[in-house]
Design a protein that fits this description.
Blueprint: H1 3-13, H2 23-37, H3 51-77
Helix pairs in contact: 1-2, 1-3, 2-3
Length: about 80
């Protein structure tokens, strides 16, 4: 994960992490998932019925990497 990706997670996704996935935020959730899973490109869901599962997965990945993300974000803030 790059410093820019950690910054994206902390500044774009983190503030909406407890909100619902809906049209204005789907792109942010997809990009956060891409970063956290190490994918080359986002993999949008084909059905809104999958959003709850996606949210749980993204939050779980964030929890696993939170320390690393916060360290990278701290370096970007300096």
């Amino acid at each position: 994960m790059t410093t820019e990706e950690a910054t994206y997670i902390m500044e774009k996704w983190y503030p909406i992490r407890d909100g619902a996935l809906h049209n204005p935020t789907i792109g942010i959730w997809n990009e956060a998932e891409r970063i956290l899973r190490g994918w080359d490109k986002p993999q949008p869901r084909s059905c809104s019925c999958e959003y709850k599962t996606q949210a749980r997965m993204v939050k779980s990945f964030f929890s696993q990497y939170e320390t690393q993300i916060r360290e990278l974000y701290g370096k970007a803030s300096v």
